[in-house]
Amino acid sequence: VREAKAAGFKLVILTAKHHDGFCLWPTATTAHSVKSSLWKDGKGDVVKEVAQACKEYGISFGVYLSPWDRNAPMYGTEAYNDFFIAQLTELLTGYGKVDEVWFDGANGEGPNGKKQVYDFERYYKLIRKLQSQAVIAVMGPDVRWVGTESGYGREQEWSVVPANNLNPEGVAANSQQGLAFKPQGDMMGNDLGSREKIKTAKGLVWYPAETDVSIRPGWFYHEKDDEKVKTTEKLLDIYYSSVGRNGVLLLNLPPDKRGLIHEADVKSLREWRRQIEATFAKNLAKGARVKSANGRNAAALLDGNYNSYWTTKAADTTAVIELELKAKSTFDCLLLQEA
User: Fold this and answer.
1) Which of 14, 41, 107, 154 has its CA 20 to 30 A from that of 331?
2) Closest by alpha carbon to 144, among 73, 76, 206?
3) Contacts 24+ apart (CB under 8 A), 232-240
4) How far apart are CA 225 and CA 272, in angstroms?
């Protein structure tokens, strides 16, 4: 958590349970958890330690809970939804504020060879009841999956999309297909929010995209990959191709056998943060004169207030913004944000 904070992350999402069904907290729902391990004589609680560390370092806390469970004997029956609700309740009531709950759509067979019909609506209602402020992603109503686990988003990514374009089935079909998965066909909608799309929309919804990728070749730690950690240059390219394309970046950091982020990962992260900070250290537009002949409230472009915005007039098809800087300047990076 300390290294995540140092790298500039705003939130840590802990994998509380992955597809193997092993729980990193002493759940009452199954013995397949830390309470059956030798770690701390079965009295440890990883979720508790991470939640406390997030508070200590002033970073938001979230949990990933895999709906797919290859250990639960009732998987593939309605009883499993009750089982899952019980696990979710424990996580949402035992560890203070939870800022995000992360689901994927992976749906393989359980130990009995059956597949499960997930009651996502029931899961959502419980989260809204117990942690109303929590964001629900990626198989959720608040944040959508960008459609690839490569770290690269669409060249044009819009946060406002037509409500009739949402396709949770498409997310479920492609989720957890590995880092090499690339969007094909319509990329779950190659063009989601352009004017061409929204002009025929039945309604609009704020549904921003999240782009996920691992700092290593896979999602879990393997010693053989210590020399394959993404370089600072690669991380910067991913940053500008995810955050820089109006997405949220989720970067996977797998702990090693010590329970720590490996030194190779830390080295890349620290230099990555240093270069991002150096790039955005000075806002050349600060104090500039801004005008737009065919727009409204041009001053909002530079006021630093997220509640104000500049927009064009309804009849405009193009717009021009002019900035008169205080001094002659050279730049190669421009930050625009969708309001």
Assistant:
1) 154
2) 206
3) 232/268, 232/271, 232/272, 232/275, 235/268, 235/269, 235/272, 236/272, 236/275, 236/276, 238/151, 238/152, 238/213, 239/272, 239/276
4) 19
Q: Give per-residue burial for 204-215: e unless 16+ CB within 10 Å, then b.
A: eeebbbbbbbbb
Backbone angles phi, psi at 209, to 5 degrees: -100, 145
Q: Is 326 exposed, middle or buried (0-12, 13-18, 19+ CB in 10 A)?
A: exposed
Query: Which residues partner with 243 through β-bridges?
Result: none
Helix (H, G, I), strand (E, B) or coil at 158: coil
pLDDT, tens digit (0-9, with 9 covering 90-100), for 61-92: 999 999 999 999 999 999 999 999 999 999 99
Query: Mean pLDDT in runs of 10 for the chain (339 residues)?
Result: 96 98 99 98 98 98 97 96 99 98 91 90 95 93 89 88 61 43 43 77 83 96 97 97 95 96 97 96 91 85 89 84 91 83
Per residue in 180-219, pLDDT (tens digit) is: 222 233 436 677 777 777 777 777 788 899 999 999 999 9
Angle at 255 between CA 254 and CA 256, to 5 degrees: 115
Q: H-helix or E-strand containing 3? A: helix 2-6
2-279 belongs to which homologous superfamily? Glycosidases (3.20.20.80)
Return the SS3 of 143. Answer: coil
Instruction: Tell me the C-alpha distance between 63 and 127, whole Å.
Output: 12
Distance of CA 298 to the CA centre of its chain: 32
Other C-beta atoms lying within 10 Å of the C-beta of residue 74: 18
The single-letter code of the amino acid at 61 is: F
DSSP 289-330: EEE-TTEE-GGGGGS--TT---EE-TT-S----EEE-SS---
Q: What is the pTM of this model?
A: 0.87
Maximal CA-CA distance, the chain? 70
* SS3 category, 23: strand
- Report CA torsion sign: 146, 147, 152, 153: negative
**Phi, psi dihedral angles at 52 (to 5 degrees):** -65, -40
